[in-house]
Amino acid sequence: MTHPTKRKLEKVLVSEKALYQRINRKLRAQGEALHRSRGGRCAIELGEYYTVNTEINGVVDSHLDLEDFGRELSVLRPYEALREVR
Q1: Distance from the CA of 58 to the CA of which of 29, 46, 50, 68 falls in 20 to 30 A?
Q2: Does residue 6 form part of some domain?
Q3: What is the pLDDT of residue 43?
Q4: Could you tell me the pTM of the whole model?
Protein backbone atom coordinates (compact mmCIF):
# COMPACT_ATOMS: atom_id res chain seq x y z
CA MET A 1 0.00 0.00 0.00
CA THR A 2 1.39 3.37 -0.95
CA HIS A 3 1.02 6.42 1.20
CA PRO A 4 -0.49 9.48 -0.35
CA THR A 5 2.01 12.24 -0.95
CA LYS A 6 1.75 14.99 1.61
CA ARG A 7 1.14 18.22 -0.17
CA LYS A 8 2.67 21.36 1.21
CA LEU A 9 -0.18 23.76 1.73
CA GLU A 10 0.50 27.15 0.29
CA LYS A 11 -0.90 30.22 1.95
CA VAL A 12 -3.35 32.44 0.12
CA LEU A 13 -1.74 35.85 -0.29
CA VAL A 14 -3.71 38.92 0.78
CA SER A 15 -2.71 42.40 -0.35
CA GLU A 16 -1.82 45.11 2.15
CA LYS A 17 -4.78 47.19 0.98
CA ALA A 18 -7.26 44.31 1.42
CA LEU A 19 -5.99 43.54 4.92
CA TYR A 20 -6.07 47.26 5.83
CA GLN A 21 -9.72 47.40 4.73
CA ARG A 22 -10.65 44.22 6.63
CA ILE A 23 -9.10 45.60 9.81
CA ASN A 24 -10.88 48.95 9.43
CA ARG A 25 -14.26 47.24 8.94
CA LYS A 26 -13.70 45.31 12.17
CA LEU A 27 -12.48 48.37 14.11
CA ARG A 28 -15.32 50.61 12.91
CA ALA A 29 -17.75 48.68 15.16
CA GLN A 30 -15.51 49.55 18.13
CA GLY A 31 -15.30 53.24 17.27
CA GLU A 32 -11.70 52.95 16.09
CA ALA A 33 -9.79 53.23 12.82
CA LEU A 34 -6.43 52.04 11.53
CA HIS A 35 -4.08 54.66 10.11
CA ARG A 36 -0.80 54.48 8.25
CA SER A 37 1.96 56.99 8.97
CA ARG A 38 3.17 59.09 6.10
CA GLY A 39 6.70 59.21 7.41
CA GLY A 40 8.78 61.69 9.32
CA ARG A 41 8.20 62.33 13.00
CA CYS A 42 4.80 60.61 13.01
CA ALA A 43 6.34 57.35 11.77
CA ILE A 44 9.03 57.53 14.44
CA GLU A 45 6.57 58.16 17.28
CA LEU A 46 3.68 55.94 16.16
CA GLY A 47 5.23 53.39 13.83
CA GLU A 48 3.98 52.57 10.34
CA TYR A 49 0.49 51.57 11.56
CA TYR A 50 -1.52 52.82 14.52
CA THR A 51 -5.13 52.90 15.70
CA VAL A 52 -7.20 55.93 16.64
CA ASN A 53 -10.40 56.31 18.66
CA THR A 54 -12.69 58.08 16.17
CA GLU A 55 -14.79 59.79 18.84
CA ILE A 56 -11.94 61.61 20.60
CA ASN A 57 -9.40 61.39 17.75
CA GLY A 58 -6.84 59.96 20.16
CA VAL A 59 -4.23 57.29 19.51
CA VAL A 60 -5.22 53.93 21.01
CA ASP A 61 -2.30 51.72 19.94
CA SER A 62 0.90 52.30 17.98
CA HIS A 63 3.75 50.42 16.30
CA LEU A 64 1.39 47.72 14.98
CA ASP A 65 2.47 44.90 12.70
CA LEU A 66 -0.28 44.67 10.08
CA GLU A 67 -0.23 40.88 9.69
CA ASP A 68 -0.08 40.17 13.45
CA PHE A 69 -2.83 42.69 14.14
CA GLY A 70 -5.02 41.13 11.43
CA ARG A 71 -4.59 37.71 13.05
CA GLU A 72 -5.33 39.14 16.50
CA LEU A 73 -8.63 40.56 15.18
CA SER A 74 -9.38 37.29 13.31
CA VAL A 75 -9.67 39.04 9.95
CA LEU A 76 -6.65 37.13 8.58
CA ARG A 77 -7.25 33.37 8.52
CA PRO A 78 -4.56 30.78 9.34
CA TYR A 79 -4.34 29.81 5.66
CA GLU A 80 -3.73 33.43 4.57
CA ALA A 81 -0.57 35.55 4.62
CA LEU A 82 0.20 39.16 3.87
CA ARG A 83 1.69 39.63 0.42
CA GLU A 84 5.05 41.38 0.74
CA VAL A 85 5.30 44.10 -1.89
CA ARG A 86 8.47 45.82 -0.74
Answers
A1: 68
A2: no
A3: 87
A4: 0.82
Q: How many domains does the chain have?
A: 1
Own/partner contacts of 52-58, CB < 8 Å, gap of 24 or more, are 55/31
Answer whether residue 77 shows pLDDT above 80.
yes
pLDDT tens for each residue of 15-73? 999 999 999 999 999 999 999 999 888 889 999 999 999 999 999 999 999 999 999 99
Q: Does 42 reside within a domain?
A: yes
Distance CA 16, CA 83 (A): 7
3-state class (DSSP) for residue 62: coil
The CA distance from 25 to 17, in Å, is: 12
Judge contact between 13 and 83, C-beta under 8 A.
yes
Q: Tell me, what's the pLDDT at 10?
A: 86
Query: Domain of 64?
Result: 12-82
CB 65 within 8 A of CB 50: no
Residue type at position 72: E
